[in-house]
Amino acid sequence: MIIVLDKYSDLREAINRYLGPIIEYDRKYNGKLLETLKVYLQCNGSKQEAAKRLFIVRQTLYHRMEKLERFLGTDFMEADKRLALELMLKAYDYLMSGGEMHGQRRAALGAE
C-alpha cells in the first residue's frame, strides 16, 4: 500500500490508475460497476449478500462481476490488491464529496 502512495504522489492519479476504467465505463453506460464493487467488497465477496444489498438478482451481479474482472483482473480480491482498491474507493468518495477537489479536477474523476 505504501508503494502505491509513494508511486502516485497525486491522489487523483492513483484513483485514475485503479478506478479510471470503471468510472469511465459507468459514465458512458450507466453501468453501476463502481457501486457494485463497493458493495461487493463491503460484503467480503459474498455474491448473495451483495445482490441483496444492491436490490438486483444474482445473475445481474455475475454479469457486473465479469466486467469488473475484465477491468481489475481476476485477482482483485487478493489482500494487497483489495486493500488498494478499498483505499482508492475511499479516496474517490472523499474527493467527490468535496474533499480538496473542485471544478476540473472533479470532472476529471467523473463528477457531473
TrEMBL record:
Alphabetical list of Pfam families matching this protein: HTH_30
Protein name, entry field: PucR C-terminal helix-turn-helix domain-containing protein
Signal sequence bounds: none
Native source organism of the sequence: Geobacillus subterraneus
Domain PucR C-terminal helix-turn-helix: 33-91
Lineage start: Bacteria, Bacillati, Bacillota, Bacilli, Bacillales
Gene3D superfamilies the record matches: PucR C-terminal helix-turn-helix domain
PANTHER family with a match to the protein in the record: CARBOHYDRATE DIACID REGULATOR, DNA-BINDING TRANSCRIPTIONAL ACTIVATOR ADER
